[in-house]
Amino acid sequence: MDAATRIESTLADAVLLAEASGAPPRLAAAMRHAVFPKGARIRPRLSIAVAMACGDDRPRLSSAAAASIELLHCASLVHDDMPCFDDADTRRGRASVHRAFGEPLAVLAGDALIVLAFQTVARAAPCAPERLGPVIGAIGDGVGVPFGIVAGQAWECEPEVNLSDYQRQKTGALFAAATVAGAAAAGAPDPEAWRMLGDRLGEAYQVADDLRDAVEDEATIGKPVGRDKALGRPSAVAEFGLDGAVRRLATLAEAAVAAIPACPGQGRLRALILEETRRLLPAKLATA
Amino acid sequence: MDAATRIESTLADAVLLAEASGAPPRLAAAMRHAVFPKGARIRPRLSIAVAMACGDDRPRLSSAAAASIELLHCASLVHDDMPCFDDADTRRGRASVHRAFGEPLAVLAGDALIVLAFQTVARAAPCAPERLGPVIGAIGDGVGVPFGIVAGQAWECEPEVNLSDYQRQKTGALFAAATVAGAAAAGAPDPEAWRMLGDRLGEAYQVADDLRDAVEDEATIGKPVGRDKALGRPSAVAEFGLDGAVRRLATLAEAAVAAIPACPGQGRLRALILEETRRLLPAKLATA
């Protein structure tokens, strides 16, 4: 089974849990709306790529870890789109969850997706119980306090913000969780050695996201654009200018490839990362 | 160390994680506000009481499981108090989190507390790695989909509600998680056998909460009262009347005691449960 099929199939099984008879059907519908149809699935694909580079001897657990990362990403999108944050009406080209289901169900669908992430990993753990702690540790670090994506988002509520801390936590942390959890799920001897790869890729992805917000239109990326400038938010484009941000993206992509630890599938993973990071640059800027 | 000290000390260590240098300080403050000063801690005390009745040979893990249950309870209070649900200005006798820190940090503090619950259990797991899956499974069932407290809260967004499903999920589920996770943390042979005790206690607690909402004043219980009636919410008082609800509470307390499985500390646990359930009846009704 290829990585994309593993991810979609594990996510489908996870979301199915919400649709049991006797459970509130609108909550399940809101969760499904948040997870399907799919986005780029860039984080879970990264997680599975790392697991495969490390031998991937427990594919059920690595698929669950990857799905868990994506569920947490979807949860963060649901909450970040709410009126008290980005107030975004659209996401992935259609109504955001609070626009489609109301604010109460947006809060609860996000909460339930966070819990579902941990349920999903725990349910896959009987194949390798001793790896569950490290996998959950990696995922928890990427999402929670002190330096996960929730902490990153919370910097928007602070009077003073360091751009690098903000972006590393808001985006990089979940990429690092994807690489570390992928390695831990595959039983790699030192999962923490994979953190640097995730950090660099996360930073690259954040710069690319800032570039998209600055140069793309809503129809192309399926969500409102120009939000960073409109809301006065910190962004790489605001800090380095458009050209500076493009150069920073290239530097970070090289640093990511250089950060891949020695492992059985190192060559193949390098090629994959190079290909993925090339795709991050908005088409308008690549052809300019 | 007594149960109360174990709970407070484990919660204090957990919340300290949010206060690391380089993390957003207002998020940490909002989380601390949600967890301290303490409420009744009825769920974590139940969890530890069950662990002790089962031998409690890994107290670090059972303390973490108990703290995790309380963190999830606090998270649910933070989100349920928000304007899109109960719109409660006070909680535990002072400002609710969104009143003290704003809506964005209320959303994020709740999210971070959910994640912290799982981080806390995972960090305690090295002493008994094979128990982590069952403990997280029990906790996830109590909070998430299909039948946990988030699902319970989501019934408030459905056009038709069954009172028994609603209350079992909204309140009973976390009590059941407290008993099952306590048993699993202590290595009990069949943790699921402890679910019935939690279910019954949760239902008793929900009936007691409905009674308090109907007969107490805000100064006594530290949060707004009369909300069920004002918001037209399902409640045991609305369904059975005041006397009927009092009788139902007594029946449920007896059923809880009868549901305690055979275990080394059965006698002591029975006495404790009897004492706790007696305290649930609002003083006004007990003296009437």
UniProtKB/TrEMBL annotation, chains A, B:
Pfam families: polyprenyl_synt (PF00348). Its EC number is 2.5.1.1, 2.5.1.10, 2.5.1.29. GO terms for biological process: isoprenoid biosynthetic process. InterPro entries: Isoprenoid_synthase_dom_sf, Polyprenyl_synt, Polyprenyl_synt_CS. GO terms for molecular function: (2E,6E)-farnesyl diphosphate synthase activity; dimethylallyltranstransferase activity; geranylgeranyl diphosphate synthase activity; metal ion binding. Its cofactor is Mg(2+). Gene3D superfamilies: Farnesyl Diphosphate Synthase. Keywords: Isoprene biosynthesis, Magnesium, Metal-binding, Transferase. It comes from the Bacteria. Belongs to the FPP/GGPP synthase family. This is Geranylgeranyl diphosphate synthase type II.
